[in-house]
Amino acid sequence: MHQVCIRRLLLKLVCFLLLTFLLQAPLFLNIAKANSSNPREIETASTNQLRLVVKASPRSAYQTEELFNNKKIVRELKKNNLRSPYEEPVPPDTALSFEENGHNYHFGVTAKGEVINLSQKIIVDLPTYVREVLVEHVRALRAKHYGEILPWEQASEALPKYSKFTITDLESGLSFEGQRRAGSSHADVQPLTKQDSATLKTIYDGAWSWDRKAVLVKLNGRTLAGSMHGMPHGGDGIPGNDFNGHFCIHFLGSVTHGSRSADPAHQVMVYKAAGLLTEYISKLNPWQLIDVWISGANQGDLQLLQVTTGQEQAVHMRTMRRLSKFPELDTSKLLQLDAAVDVSATPEGSNSTRTRRVLFHLARVSSDTRWYIRSAIIQ
User: Quick check: 176 and 201 in contact, CB under 8 A?
Assistant: First the structure.
């Protein structure tokens, strides 16, 4: 009798264990699949996925990005075959990155498809087909990020009087609505509403300013490259928009009402909004380059100072304006130039503006290469 009871208990135990196994077998199988196949799938996706990001400057909050897979590009980038030094004064506006096994790879990419090892400032040697693929992706992404550069006459036709459009600051990414109210030499614009005026003021850190900023002007499916300041002036206000007057937006070749000449600070920002800042700077003569440097010093724009000098630097001035007229000197055959330029300047922490002299030394390697400001000494 005792043995019969033991057999029954053993039989029940076996049945219980068998039932438990059958019920939990799918879970065990799923766990096994997750531990065996999914990591390989995730690793493959992570390894082959490349991320492109376009920003007008390293400090820009506004960016445009794209994700795409290409295992051939990843394989070539991992080789890190270095070719020659990258000699441009600023890094490319397009960054390329990917992740593999917890390690992040970061590069810069030029519009020509050249990949730059940013830590060493050296161009990576890549096969032609890789550069061709990258050129296609980079050009398409930069076209989305930047604006179309149009001469003022064409821009004026695209933005007729009383037209309404969206204005986006290329650095902060903040956008607001505006309306062209007047302007024959450039666009006189007003924010549409109180909120639009508040956004414009936020772009200028809460204080109205004459500083020039690169902007995108969007209307009827087009995006135009422009430059604005943020100072209300003149008349013709839109009732109730909290903006007493208008502000100005300039385009390629537009001029100011007073001087009837193109404003260098506005023009450099137009090229920046079109994604052509480095190309534009590389074609300037010494006098034009000095004007861009003064604009950078006046606005505390580190990118303009770097692109004119080839070095990271800061000029501790609240304001700076050129007073001197440039001499009529042919510099086409020169390799070095020294120039003394009088400016009105207000140092940081001061409200006193006085005349200062800046001694510039400019140089270039040959007559077919670009100029750099090698030193600027404020007396």
Answer: no
Q: Which two tokens stand for residue 185?
A: 């030499």
Using alpha carbons, select from 156, 158, 151, 201 the residue that is nearest to residue 182.
156
Q: What CA dihedral angle connects 288, 289, 292 and 298, to 10 degrees?
A: -110
Q: Is the pTM of this model over 0.90?
A: no
Measure the CA–CA gap between 168 and 147, rounded to whole angstroms. Answer: 10
How many other CB atoms are found less than 10 A from the CB of residue 20? 10
Q: Tens digit of pLDDT for each residue in 233-269?
A: 987 778 999 999 999 999 999 999 877 889 999 999 9
Give the chain's largest Cα–Cα span: 124
Give the domain 43-145 fold. Dna Ligase; domain 1 (3.30.1490)
Question: How far is the C-alpha of 127 from the C-alpha of 113, rounded, in Å?
Answer: 11
Give the model confidence (pLDDT) of 57-93 as tens digits.
999 999 999 999 999 999 999 998 999 999 888 899 9
Query: Which residue in 126, 127, 133 sits closest to 68, CA to CA?
Result: 133
Cβ neighbours of residue 167 closer than 8 Å, sequence gap 6 or more: 175, 176, 177, 178, 189, 215, 216, 217, 218, 226, 228, 249
Correct CATH for 147-275 of 3.10.590, 3.40.50, 2.60.40, 2.40.10: 2.40.10
Number of residues that make up the chain = 379
Report the 3 state secondary structure along 182-232. Answer: ECCCCEEEEECCHHHHHHHHHHCCCCCEEEEEEEEEEECCEEEEEEEEECC
